[in-house]
Amino acid sequence: MNNPLYISLLTLLIIAHGQSFSSDVHGTIISNKEPLAGVLVYVVNNKDNFYVSDSLGTYTIRDVEDNDSIVFSFLGFKELIIPVLDLKQNGKVIMTEDTKSLDEVFIFRNKEFSSDFPMKSYSQLEIYASPTSQADPLNAILSTAVTTNINESAKPSLRGSSMGFTMVYLNEVPIFYPTKGNLVNNSIASTSSMNTSFIGTESIYASNSPIEFENSASGSVDMQLNKEISDKKTLFLSTVGTNASISKNFKSSFLETYLSYTDLYPFVKMNNIKDINHYRSYDTGIHFNRTLKNSKYSLYASYMCENGDYPMLFYKNNSSYLNMTSFVNSIANYEYYHEGIKLKADFSFSHLKSKVKHNNVNMDELCNYLYGAISYSQLVNENIQYRFGLNSIFSTFKTTSDYANSWNSADKGTMSQITPYTSIKLLLMNYSALLGVKCCFARNCKPVFNTNLSLKYTNSNHKVLLSAASLNMYNYYESTFLRFSKMSCRQLCLEYDYNKSWLKGHCAIYLKDEKGIKRMAPMIGSYKKYIYGIETSFDIQLTRNLSWTISNFYLNTNYSFRGKTFKGEDYLKYFIKTVLNYENLKLWNMSLSLWNRPGTYYTPVDKAIYNAEYDYYTPIYADDINSAQFNKYLNVCMNISKAVDFSFGKTMFFLNITNLFNCNNNSAIYYNTDYSKSYKMNYMSRSIFLGVIVHFK
C-alpha cells in the first residue's frame, strides 16, 4: 500500500531496523576522476545498513561503529572493504575496474546509458527515508524544487510544465496510469500506483528526458525495478488499511510479491472528514527476476482497483460523485550482453477501466495500451557509447456517456505510433555530452522530430549541466475530446550543483515554450504556454542527528489562447519547501516539514444561462481569464516514529499529522446547479494517521 496521507514513515523504519551505531560516514566514490553512481555501500556486520551512491557519487552511512568496516561493491569494479576509521579521515573512495571481468564492465556501462544526466536519483532506501515521501516514490520527489505541482497530487509536474507533459516510466516502459487516489475533491492526496518495495532506484530528468523514453515532452521520472533483494517478510497495519509483502531469493533469481487493502472509513471517522463518503482500494503485484551468464530478464505484473463515493455539495438532492477505476499493468524486460554490446527488448500491456456517475451523468471508459521496444547499444571505447532503437505504442479506447437519459454519446478509436531513435554519449575527462534524435510516426498525423542535447562538467564538488531540447508527444491520457492531440515543448536549462559531505547546493534557471491542448474552464482548445523559472535548494547536515533541507522556486507562466494573453494558474512568486529532520535510531525520529506559496489563480463564473430543454445551466465565465486568486497555501506536517526490537521481529510505530495548523488551503471552486452560490474546496484538513510496521525475522 502506498497512500500519501498515511504511510508517512513507512520504511524509515526499514532503515532503522537493526541499527545501533555510533557515528556517520560521508564521502564520494570516483573512478578515473568521474563520480560513480549506483555503487552499493554497506556495513560488514550489518548488511541491512546500506546506501546506493547518487549521481554525484556521494554516499552516507549512518550510525556505524568505529571498529567496523564498510564494503563498496559495483559490477565490473574491484570490491573494496575499508575500515570505518580510515573513511572518517578521508571519505573519498577510488574504485578501479576489474579487468578480469571485462564483459561485466560492459554490462554496467551499457545499462546506465543516461545515468550521467538525471537531475537527481533516489535509492529505495532514500525514498523510504525521506520524511515527506510517505514511503511513496512519486511523493518522494515532491519536496524537490524541480517539482512545481500546485496541487497535492503525486503525478509530477516538472519545472512549470503541465502534468500531461511529464511521463512516468518503469524499467524505461511508460506507465499509462501512474497514480491512484485521484479524487475529485482533493480530500486525500493521490499516490503512486507502483509499490515502493519493488523499486530499486528512481531518477528525475527535470528538463531533458533521455531520447529513448517514449512520449515525453518535458521531463520524466524513471523507476527501475529491484536488481537484487534480501529474504524478508513485512506486515504493515494502520488506520487506513494493511499491506503485506514477501521476497525470496533463489540460486540466480528472486521473487517478490505484495498484497494491500485500503479502507478510509476509520481514518475518515477519526479525523471527521466531511468530503468522503467512502474510499477503498485493492492492490497486488508480483515481480520475478532471473540473471544468467550473459543475459537477464524481468517479469512484472500488478492489479489495482479503487472505488470512491464523494459528496458534491450544492448539487440537487445532495448528489455524490461515484468513481470506480481498475488498472492492470504487465511488463516484460529482456537484456543480452556480449563484449560491450547490449541488446534490450521491452514489452508491456495495460488495461484501464473507469466508471463515473455524477448527478444525472454516467460515463464509462475502456482503454488498452500495447507497448513494444527494442534497442541496441555499444561501448565503442571508454569515451564513446551509442544507442539506437525502435519504440511502438498501439492503443484502443471506447467511451460512452449519457445525461438523464435525454442524450447519450459513444466514441471509440485506435491509435498507433512508431518511433525510431538514436543517441550518442561522449566522455572526455571531466566532461560528458549526450545527443539524441528521434522521429515519431503516428497514425493520421504528420511525423514529428525530437532532438535533445546535454552537456555536463563534473568534479568531486561541482557539477554544471546545460541542456536544450525540442520535443513532441501525443496525449494518450485525457478525455475523448483531447485524446491523441499533439503536444510540444522547446526548452533551455542551465544547472549548477555543489556537493560537500555536510552541504549540498543546487540552482537552475530555465526557459520553456509549450504548445498543447487544454481543458480547463474556460479554456478548451489549443494554447501556448511560456515558462520562465529559477530554483534553488540546500541540504545541510547541521549535526550528527539533525539535518535541514530548504528549497524555493520562482515560476513565471503565461498563456496565449485565442488571441488573449494571461498569467497561468501556476504563476508563483515563490514556493518554499523546507524539512527539519531529527534521526536518533536509539531513541526516536522526528521531522517537521513546511510548504508555503501564494494562492493559485482561477477564472470565476459571472452568470449562467438556463437551458429549458435539458434542465441545465450553462456558466458564463469572466472575460479576464485567471483574474481571481485563492488564499495563500501553508501546510505544516509532523512525523514521529520509534523502532522497537521484539522476539518476532523489528517493529516501528509511527504517527503522522498532516496540515498541523489546519489551514484552509483552497484547491478548487464549485457552484450550485444554477451557479448562484459558490463553494471553495480545500485540500486536506488536519489529519492524524497511526501505524505500525513489522519486519519479521
Structure description:
- This protein is mainly beta and 697 residues long.
- It has one domain (120-696): Maltoporin, Chain A.
- Helix content is 5%, strand content 58%.
- The strands form eight sheets. It has a 22-stranded antiparallel β-barrel.
- The radius of gyration is 25 Å and the shape is globular.
- The relative contact order is 0.12.
- Mean pLDDT is 83; it is low at 1-21 and 100-111.
What is the domain total for the residues?
A: 1
* Tally of helical runs: 6
Structural class: mainly beta
What is the class in the CATH system? Answer: Mainly Beta
Amino-to-carboxy terminus distance: 21 Å
CATH superfamily: TonB-dependent receptor, beta-barrel domain
Estimated radius of gyration: 25 Å
Unreliable spans are 1-21, 100-111
Q: Which word captures the global form?
A: globular
